[in-house]
Design a protein that fits this description.
By secondary structure, the protein is of the alpha/beta class. It contains twelve helices and 15 strands. Strands 1, 4, 5, 6, 9, 10, 11, 12, 13, 14 and 15 form an eleven-stranded mixed sheet that branches. A four-stranded mixed sheet has the order 3-2-7-8. The longest helix is centred in the middle third of the chain and has 16 residues. It is globular, with a radius of gyration of 19 Å.
């Protein structure tokens, strides 16, 4: 049954250099709008859910363009506040071969979202709006006012009986030199409020300071994730392991931990057209499976396939429907659809 899902986070302008040029080479940029909440809701709206973004945009033509873009993705913008005068941006240079893709942020501290004054959002009203609300660690990194607003919203959602989803999404460049030390208490606050969490063993080790006895990634995952789930009373924890190959192919394996047991997807290997936003597609698959009551094995297989498909589309926002994901998952789609 379709659900109403909200996401709290910044809307950013993505400025992409065409092809594989560097910023220092090109003189053209293609723009679109993105953000973790945008990407998650884009996918979930294609799975039949209703997605509402809680954010703030400038009251100018850039804000109007962003709102129009969200509508095309199927995202409801009626709870986006208008104010301030700027939008955060990031510049994307596509990698090739041994050269990785590169993202350069610009103007985020001064954006309309990150300068929203206290009292901007009617959290009591918003908490009754949606069955589930998605929060992201990238948002948690911005400033004290944003962190306070995020935690207040999450607490209000819990008080109103809603489901809280938290994606750790730790970004070292946003936290600075003492990042893990500064981030830990804020992450722990959100973990105590969350029901579904997206993370892996590296997050447990680096952000939470946990020290495993195992040496392999899978050993560390199996040792640490049950401890995290128990410590923070989480119903579901999910994440991925990724391997990057020299021929522009990646391998991805998803996991989910639920009711004391792990389930894993197959390891999927595929060429990459656009890497950005694929983790959000995986998260959306997990959320969809949980809301629809899929068994854990089907949920993680669906999410991994959704993540793989997101690598095949240019742009941050996942665009595959539930039927398209299932078609690839089951092997029913192997040729041109006519």
């Amino acid at each position: 049954m379709p659900k109403h899902i909200a996401a709290f986070g910044e809307i950013m302008m993505r400025l992409q250099v065409p092809g594989f040029e560097l910023l220092s080479q090109g003189n053209l940029l293609k723009y679109s709008f993105s953000g973790t909440g945008v990407n998650v809701l884009s996918a979930l709206s294609r799975y039949g859910h209703r997605g509402t973004l809680v954010s703030r945009l400038p009251a100018n033509p850039i804000g109007d363009a962003a709102t129009a873009y969200l509508r095309r993705l199927g995202i409801q913008p009626e709870h986006i506040q208008r104010g301030g005068s700027s939008i955060g941006m990031y510049f994307l240079e596509n990698g090739f071969g041994a050269r990785p893709s590169r993202v350069t942020y610009s103007g985020r501290p001064e954006s309309s979202f990150n300068t929203a004054p206290p009292g901007t959002y009617p959290f009591a009203e918003l908490a009754d709006l949606a069955d589930t609300v998605h929060f992201c660690g990238i948002t948690l990194a911005m400033n004290d006012d944003v962190r306070k607003a995020m935690k207040t919203y999450a607490k209000t959602v819990k008080q109103h009986g809603g489901l809280v989803v938290f994606d750790c999404n730790y970004r070292p460049s946003l936290w600075g030199e003492r990042g893990y030390e500064l981030a830990r208490s804020h992450y722990e606050d959100m973990l105590h409020l969350a029901d579904i969490v997206l993370m892996n063993e590296k997050d447990a080790m680096l952000i939470l300071g946990m020290k495993p006895e195992g040496t392999s990634r899978e050993e560390q995952l199996q040792e640490l994730i049950p401890t995290v789930a128990s410590r923070y009373s989480l119903s579901t924890v999910a994440g991925t392991h990724r391997s990057i190959h020299d021929d522009n192919h990646h391998s991805l394996r998803g996991y989910i931990f639920k009711a004391g047991c792990f389930a894993y997807s197959e390891t999927l290997t595929f060429p990459v057209l656009d890497r950005v936003g694929a983790g959000d597609a995986y998260a959306s698959g997990i959320i969809h499976g949980e809301l629809e009551g899929f068994d854990p094995q089907h949920t993680v297989a669906f999410a991994a396939t959704a993540g793989m498909l997101a690598h095949t589309v240019e742009g941050d926002s996942p665009l595959a429907s539930e039927q398209e994901v299932i078609g690839v998952l089951t092997g029913a789609v192997r040729d041109i659809l006519r």
